[in-house]
Amino acid sequence: MAAASCALVWMVAACAVSQEDLASSAGDATGTSSDSSITVYTALEDDQISGYLESFQTQHPDINVNIVRDSTGIITAKLLAEADNPQADVVWGTAASSLLVAEEKGLLEPYAPAGLEAVNPKFRDDANPPQWVGIDVWMSAFCVNTVESEKLGLPIPKGWADLTNPVYKGHIVMSNPASSGTGFLSVSTILQNSPTEDEGWAYLDKLHENIAQYMHSGSRPCKAAGAGEYPIGISFGYRAVKQKNDGEPLEAVFPVEGSGWDVEANALIKKSDIKEAAKTFLDWAISPEVSAKYAESFAITAVKTDVPPPAGFPEDPVAQLADNDLRWAAANRERILAEWTKRYDAKSEPKS
After folding, report:
1. CB of 239 within 8 A of CB of 143?
2. What does pTM read for this prediction?
3. Within the chain, how many helices (H) and strands (E) appear?
């Protein structure tokens, strides 16, 4: 698995977003050694980043932010591969379960950002000072193309159990847990919420029979469903709701058994030259201004806001969350991914 992680690192196609050019986010993302330039690793969605950064740009025009954006699995692999020579200053909006892996490897520097008292204790490290601090919760959802489903005579699934119905064979795509945090939280939560772990794997075996492809992105299955490539994509709530609200022929289905979930979280990278600008960024990243922006995309935010949940999420989003032990997920991540790869990787899409 270590070799596989390293291989993933070199396949990263990173993009850089600077303060001077948020719109055309191209560049080498390495930044400079200046204290006024920081490199931020993130798994936030491409269409969220620029909007989120606007308030930071306004408040701190002297700090250049070089964004390296990729899926959670790739970001995690990069952090582990760069352990002896860290390139990032900050991690922003990446799965807490992955940051717990980085924490275990001693890669994070404890830091209590300004405004920490406003963060819900459920969504931050309980150490003082914390090694990671959450910003929002994202949860699994199914993106169902209603037009394509009707053409194929497929019923709209209501939950995880429905997806093993043979009628869906070859019609479902899902995020690959080895490269996608969304894929991992779905697999991890299925294993945790089954009567036994063996029964969880038995369910995944049945689901696998219906899977057409495992995709290397949390949002890609929903985008594929929206485009009519496949009728059903196992993805996450923000992407399902956004595409539906944008007018695509999608039904956002939150499974009746409960959704897998994780916390998008931030952390300071341990390195010899920790920059004050990195701490300034982490202070801003839980501020009321940007938390209100997070709330436009997510029904649950770590800092409470007055923004109503986006239309399309469950009325009680907290009740939708399945039982999930993030520390168990982090401690068993390598074992779970090794087993998953052995069983199911033959249906993974080719790596680009």
Report:
1. yes
2. 0.85
3. 14, 11
